[in-house]
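Hi everyone, sorry if this is the wrong subforum. Our group has a chain we'd like a structural model of before ordering constructs, and none of us has done structure prediction before. Sequence below.
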Amino acid sequence: MSQPGTLPRMDVWPEGFTPRRWLTFDEQAQALCSQTDPDAFFPEQGGSSRAAKQVCAQCPVREACLTVGLTRGERDGVYGGTTRRERERMWKNPPAGARRPADGEELVAA
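Answer:
Right subforum, don't worry. Here is the predicted structure as tokens:
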């Protein structure tokens, strides 16, 4: 059982990872970050990402957002509850068959 105020681990590969570059319109509408101060998701260097991660932990589209952040290799911001460093660490140990698509590579829509 987690302690009050602790966040769940979010730097875990989404099950059945399939690269995708965008959230659908429905997912965008459900995303809790769209109802929150965007600055929380882009903290200053050395700043805390905790506020954004708290929002992500409750978000119904967190895994889709994480997939987008991983696919696009996002260098800034919190995506699916992960920071750039966390996403970079995830790519060091991807699940079997996962790969980053090349720039401009067509992806099947989710």
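For your construct planning: Helices lie at 25-30, 50-58, 62-72, 84-91. The first helix runs from residue 25 to 30.
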